[in-house]
Amino acid sequence: MKDVRLNNGVMMPAIGFGVYQIPEKETERVVSDAIEAGYRMFDTAASYFNEEQVGNAIRQSGIRREEFFITTKLWVQDYEYDDALRAFDKSLKLLGLDYIDLYLLHKPYGNYYAAWRACERLYKEGLIRAIGVTSFSNERLQDLFLHNEVKPAVNQLETHPFFQQQAANTFLQKEAVQHEAWAPFAEGQNDIWNNPVLKAIAEKHGRTVGQVVLRWLNQRNVVVIPKTVHKERMIENFSIFDFTLTALEMETIAGLDTGKSPIYDDMDLATVRGIGLHKIHE
């Protein structure tokens, strides 16, 4: 699984590179290193404040635009229809691109119906190759596509060994919506790098824990966007297609699922309020 075909026929790489929390001043160098390591899919967002630096690295690579798959996201603050159109235009300009490969609604709060209809318009105009969502529950996702014209192509969810999203994965595969993992390494929570189950499997294959986690997700048909600022780790993370986890190993890793996020609780009212009201511009 080196590429996946989205429900509109667009091909998407199975592994990309995330730039969340990479400082603005470091992003251009990090993305350039990732390009040299072989990555062609990059995931950013308006709320990461590094779209311009991602775009700079892409242009300076000397590689044709068509070889890249670029994702960015619309923040909740701009979910009204006209605001969404303006925010997209700003992201496009910051990236310095003529089109976006994948545009996602960043969170399932606010007037996401209006935002989705703005995305549908941009998609139909050819400015976006595919549209999708982030962190939508099965219920909200189904409600969205039942009452709109364009079905989301991707749902980007927190997905890792401790929060495996098994019900979501089943639903997404049934509905032909691609499951993509954010925080595939659980942002380092639960001491993931020293987990004895993952370490034992990694040692058996002569791999790192990170490679085992990414391969496990890949074998579940989940697209991954790992992040690192270290080039040697970039190369390691990208090298996951020359070994296979056994059914028993997959089952063993499945036993690590806690059924809840170690990062933040989507059902916590203070968290939802904080995200929903967070502003990224005046």
Please explain how this structure is put together.
The structure is a single chain. The protein has 282 residues and is α/β, with parallel strands linked by helices. The chain has a single domain (3-277), classed as TIM Barrel (Alpha-Beta Barrel). Helix content is 41%, strand content 15%. It is built from 11 helices and 10 strands. It has helices at residues 24-37, 51-60, 81-95, 112-124, 138-146, 166-175, 196-205, 209-219, 231-238, 247-254, 269-277, and strands at 3-5, 11-13, 17-18, 41-43, 69-74, 100-105, 128-134, 154-158, 178-182, 223-224. Strands 3-4-5-6-7-8-9-10 form an 8-stranded parallel beta sheet. α3 crosses α4 and α7 (196-205) crosses α8 (209-219). The longest helix has 15 residues, at 81-95. It is globular, with a radius of gyration of 18 Å.
Q: Please state the structural category.
A: alpha/beta
Report the total helices: 11
Quickly count the domains. 1
Q: What sequence of helices (H) and strands (E) makes up the elements?
A: EEEHEHEHEHEHEHEHHEHHH
CATH 4th-level superfamily: NADP-dependent oxidoreductase domain
> Total number of β-strand segments?
10
Q: What's the CATH architecture?
A: Alpha-Beta Barrel
- In CATH terms, what is the fold-level topology? TIM Barrel
Radius of gyration: 18 Å
- Largest sheet, if any? 8 strands, parallel
Mean pLDDT: 98
